[in-house]
Amino acid sequence: MKITRVTPMTMGTDWRNITFVKVETDEGLVGVADVRALNRTEAVVGYLKEAVPRYVLGNDPFNIEQIVHRMYLEDFGRAGEVVMSGIALIEIACWDIVGQALGQPVYRLLGGAVRDKIKAYANGWYTVERTPEEFHAAAKRVVERGYRALKFDPFGAGFYELEKEEKFKSIALVEAVRDAVGPDVDILIEMHGRFNPATAIDIARELERFKPGWYEEPVPPENLAALKKVSDAIAPLGVPIATGERIHTPFEYRELFELQAADIIQVDITHYGGILNTKKLAAWANAYYMLIAPHNVGGPASTAAALHLAACTTNFKIQEYFNDFAEAYVKEAATGLPEVVDGYFALPSGPGLGLTLNEDVIRAHPQRELHFNLFAEDWHKRRVAGDR
Fold this sequence. Notes:
The chain is α/β, with parallel strands linked by helices. The protein has helices at about 40-55, 65-75, 80-100, 105-110, 130-145, 165-180, 195-205, 225-235, 250-260, 275-285, 300-310, 330, 360-365, and strands spanning about 5-10, 15-25, 30-35, 115-120, 150, 185-190, 215, 240-245, 265, 290, 320, 335, 340, 345, 355.
């Protein structure tokens, strides 16, 4: 079997562009994948335009290790988010083809299931006014949909420090959410790398009384010694540190692991070179007694890849999910994904990823001219004006 064509297709939404790839073979099998490359859509598509003729076309899709190795090694430059996203698109689509060829779900080719359902947490649900009343009502709607965990960033446009008024407002939002969902639902505090260590530590102490499930990316990702400082200071609180969505290679993770600066890694499969790379990382993390909770803000194929990994990974914790709180057509772009029921996904079914791509839906919602800025006022409403 040989790969004969790779077709990128980008679908626009109110705040993100989702790039799908369709990988075709000479035996008629077709694999799919998708990625949300935040503010880098054209860069990823441009990378594929150069890399695919060199490393992908004419290759056997079963040769996943070889394809990934060549895409990573032979370009010589230092791989980052763009390159690792391009590699992931090809890698995930190859797994989809391999599963179809063998008549098996991808997770069965990676060791088989170690659980019979996959816990999910909601994100993207708080596109409301930044008031305790609005956050309270929105959080109630999440648990009414059956979710038993939800994540949010209450900190507005904060960077390094917060004015006292903003700090108290953020605390009030967390208090409102905890009151809305009760004591048995996990609330996960997203910090988006906003703070310097002193501020992150102070906020973590203030929020401890609301029993958060984790603090995510409390400081920017470039300086892991700063993260270690935060981790050490808040360890007595018993709240885990989660990080990793902006770490794209194993060499960066090496330092995180050796410092033991976090408890949960949030690698994004679509920015880390794909499913097998992430499976290897999870095994490595397991040697440090760390859990994995993959970052996932893409479309249905990104979610499918994450579910297949979750199904066969022993130190998996919980799966992020946006698309129950996004435009309905995002889920329609590739059908076959299980829905979240009572807070859990069922295991994926069907060979490969188990999806059917709907190109008509993608074409009906073309790429938009977007710049999503997490440090702008009201970013959390996830409404960015402008179309291509």
